[in-house]
Amino acid sequence: MKSLPASPPSNLSSPISGWRRPLAVSPTLQWRAKEGSGWDVATLWLAGRESRKHRKKRAAGLVKGECTASMPGLHQETSLIPSRPCVSPPSPSSIVALPPLDKHFQSLLYKTQASHWKVYSARSVFGDKDCSLFVFNRKENVKAPPRLGRMTRLSLTDLIRFDVNQLHQLAHPRILQVVHPLEDTKEFMAFASEPIKGNLEQLVIEEGVSKLEMKLGVLQVIDGLSYLHNSAKMLHGNLTPSAVFVTSARMWKISGFSFSVAAKEGNEYPCYPWTKKLPSTLQPDLDFLAPEYLAPNQQSVTTAADVFSLGVLICWVYGGGKRIIDAKNNLESYAIVCGQLDEALNLIAEELGQNLKESLSKVLSLDVDVRPSVQLLALIKHFDDPAVSALRQLDDIAQEFDPTLKAHFLSQILFAALPNIPEPLWFSRILPRFNEQLLDSTEIFTSVAKPLLYMLEHCESHNIHKLKGWIRNVLEHCHQKTLASFLLENMSVLFRRMSDDQVEDNLMELILSSMKNEDTSMQSSAIRGIPSVAEFLPMGFVLRKLLPVIQTLPGYLHDNVPRQLDLLAALAALSDRCDTASLQQLTTCVSLCSAHHPVIIHAKSRLVQRVVTRDGSRLKDPAHVCFHLLNPLVVGLASRDLSPAHFDDVMSSIRILLDIVEQLRYDSDNRLAQESAGVGRLASRRVSMSSNNLPRVMITAARPSLTGDNSDLRKMSFLSADGRLEDRGRRESKDSRGSIESDVSIRIGNGSDVSDDSSYHSQKGRRQSWLDSYGHSCSLEQTSLDSSRIFDRSASMRRSARNSSERRARTRSPTGDVLGDRPPSARSIHQPARPNSFTNLGHNLVLTYRNFWQKD
Length: 856
Known about the structure:
alpha+beta; 3-stranded antiparallel β-sheet; elongated; Leucine-rich Repeat Variant; about 10% strand; 4 domains; 6-stranded antiparallel β-sheet; Transferase(Phosphotransferase), domain 1; disordered N terminus
């Protein structure tokens, strides 16, 4: 091995075996070894022996993110250091390190190329916050030609240094925020900013921008320019798509101050003309430059120059990335295009809209005095949009310190604007603002919950998971009264859209805690919310927790009709999924609603009908049915405040319950008789005579007029095969009465249905034949017909029929079990069998036609 150069300081020595002499290491390499990068002095010295050509290639790869070691700037040569394994070059997205920035930032990942910058995503060491790292490789520096004399000192690095320094001094929400100042080394220049997605050129061309976001972004650029012109007294000088960056929160922010100038006096700014002698990289973009920059002997410009650049930028954005001026750095072409800007605007008139096109014709005017200020441009009708206004206020919500104004904006203005905001913006703009500004604002969570639940209810299913964190956070703070009431009123949205066990558990706990609360408004909110979520509540929760809590509410319900109505509605909704045991426990709660108000009586009647319609066979305990359901309805019949419609409805429910009790009693008697006689279960098999299974025949009957003459008017009725005449044209009360009695109450399998083939008669016997008692009973519908036309025209028969109709016997079941003076033995011996469906059908047809011909 050749002898090594002069020895380094005494504290540095080689750890590699076989090397006896100390290494000569440059101060830069000594510093890198001291920084604890994991490189020993020998490795640093060997790395420094690389050829200059190889170092250039390696440096270029480093800027692209192709680093093979933990410390950039040094290439790992396995041929020189056998102890180190060979590592393949990683992709540009691999993690890199950039000293000395690696002291402040970690987890660097290459993201994109923005103009002359390589952009990396990173996280700060202190605070662990997301940021973006801008890196410029000095090897890519551009200098002015030497023949320009003093201009030789101008280079791209000088413009970068001026740009970042200006950017660091400006503090405004519409200016790119610098979080770490410029680091300038021999290899690169770098600074850190807030996290970005890229510049405007990448966003518009690669991803596309909606019209709403275009309006919002242009207004943000206008706000930034207004700040520069009026507050900072600065002219931007090069407002191009590459000078506008889009942050991760979709905010448009101005950057690129390489050619900015300060005002000399008033509204005059120095003018540096565009020249062919300099490279285009060292000058503003000619396609976005105002024409007055190129005027002969032009010494100064005004803010109208930036207004012209803004107009060209707006045309570029609305045109989808197409330049309205494309001179290709040729001054002659630029002059020709500027003279035809009106024709160029007509080409994109459809994208701009009429109002914006008229404004841009003034903005792009060659006459400086015609151009409006940027503030006036923001006031045109094109930007007068409630959705845009709401999103602008949301972007600036951090500057609002009054919680009341924040709450009003979130619950009223933003909520009203959400239907007009595209769904992608909900999750790219609105939700990030909530995450940035409102996570700790627990006092306004009620106002935040309103737009959150709207987004949850109307968003696509694949976006629901994006709201899960916020929904959980809101439910953890539902101890606030207003927030808890709002969540209870909107539980159906949460149960239906959120498939999350934690959310459901929190909601069920909220229901219980609210019902146990001493605040009656909280109890009312919980009870009113139950019907909308009854189908989602587990039956175990209902039986073991919810119903026991309801049993503790007599004081809350006492003599309060609205609260009792709410509870009956909740019980009716819960009853749909109950089995026999749970339904018995649920109907016990009906007795808590003890008010004798007509609406309470009718609500109980509807609850009974709902239970029977769903499955009446779940009612197994006659004592329970009579005490909790039948008794309140019977007592309620005495109320004179019941309307005729409600009275008929309650009567129908009572008949249903009587049929159920009768069926349960008859089944019990049959069971006891079978057990005592030793008869098998098949001996008691019966055929259901439910009217749902029997055919119906449409018949017509002439209706006599009040004047006594018969007209051709016909009454449309449906005759069911079990002997009921159902009038489809009757009023609602009679419809509910007849349809429930003939369609619903029979569905329970009433015990009075006996087939013709059945020869078995119980010892106690049943009532007289349904057909024999036909003359002594009539349905609620048949009472409207004159009973004198059913049997005979004689006066005695008419009186007999009227007397029998006044008894109001039940439609399906004849009255009582007592058949007059006949002894029990006779009843048991002569127990008739109930006619089958065809017998009933024929009997009713005979009576109908007889009535029809006698009348004629």
